[in-house]
Amino acid sequence: xxxxxxxxxxxxxxxxxxxxxxxxxxxxxxxxxxxxxxxxxxxxxxxxxxxxxxxxxxxxxxxxxxxxxxxxxxxxxxxxxxxxxxxxxxxxxxxxxxxxxxxxxxxxxxxxxxxxxxxxxxxxxxxxxxxxxxxxxxxxxxxxxxxxxxxxxxxxxxxxxxxxxxxxxxxxxxxxxxxxxxxxxxxxxxxxxxxxxxxxxxxxxxxxxxxxxxxxxxxxxxxxxxxxxxxxxxxxxxxxxxxxxxxxxxxxxxxxxxxxxxxxxxxxxxxxxxxxxxxxxxxxxxxxxxxxxxxxxxxxxxxxxxxxxxxxxxxxxxxxxxxxxxxxxxxxxxxxxxxxxxxxxxxxxxxxxxxxxxxxxxxxxxxxxxxxxxxxxxxxxxxxxxxxxxxxxxxxxxxxxxxxxxxxxxxxxxxxxxxxxxxxxxxxxxxxxxxxxxxxxxxxxxxxxxxxxxxxxxxxxxxx
Length: 464
What we know:
The protein is α+β, with helices and mostly antiparallel strands and 464 residues long. It has helices at residues 2-31, 102-149, 157-204, 333-337, 350-354, 413-437, and strands spanning 32-40, 42-58, 61-65, 70-75, 89-90, 95-99, 206-208, 213-218, 225-226, 234-239, 244-252, 264-269, 277-284, 289-291, 294-304, 315-332, 364-371, 374-385, 389-393, 402-411. 35% of the residues lie in helices and 33% in strands. A hairpin with a 3-residue loop joins β18 and β19 (389-393). It starts with a helix and ends in a 27-residue tail after the last helix.
């Protein structure tokens, strides 16, 4: 009997365990259900926009340079009386910096001396001309008397010729004198021009503001030497009016065709998170640029900055408003892309779903709403889309309705857990029974062969 018990108990344990596993599998399969991911139909505004990145720029910037070389000796003062620096408000004609003018002052004095010398030369040439004219007048009178006498016993022929030659020489000398006066006057004009140039260079030593505005950048320090050669060195950068700002945005060639002057624009800057600013398109520059085979155009956007909060050179995230719809029904784009399988469609809507076609002359689509464990279709007309949501209109579509966007599968864990607990309980009971019948430590789920008798028949020794 003990041998029989040792054989039957493990077999019972195996049967109970297999039954529990089958029960758990069947219950798990029955507990696996199909559920739909849904999203609500909402009512609101939809804006179709083009996104771009740009930089805030002052509307008009003046680069103030130096036309002469020299060392910076001092800076001027702004409207508040403080030394000009970054952000200083300056007025037109106000001194910004002073360059060492010692050499230029010496050039002015030298030029003034040349002018005085040239003036004296003009006076001398004019005096010489007057003397030559007097001699010419005397020679003309002598020649007139000689002509009256003519070559005769009273006037020798040699003297006649001498008077004639003297008159001609005096006339020529007057012409020379007049030319000398003209030359002296030209020398004076040249000297005066040199003086004007020297004074002009001397005036360039004082750097003044050409416009009224705000200093954006100061690029020199006191003691620094500026050298003006072919290009004037830049000393200050002045924004004429920071109440009007521009955004230079780079727009892809695929989108630039939808940009037009006067188009509304919204933009944000990282300096003021969560705040949106407005502007409008000014113009599209025609000089496109290419970077890594991507062609972009620069679009100028004007924006109001009366409060002065927007600072130059901030990075702006720009959205060009292409089209706009107000107070319309919106669904996620995933709801229009999702298509159910044949067994997911409610039986009374299978023919309707199969016959759904796109009406001619207008865009259409289908959204699905859940009906128990299945779905039913709703035909809609499709409007604008921003890439995330789409404007729709349908007879049976209402605000707040849940539309299907996808499918998710889940398993009912309650039934599987109870099955596992039941099988575990049965296995534990069978194991305890087997343990009471046999005290070995072998696996109770393995079949055990009955042990051979200790001796041969009749209790004798085992047969050889």
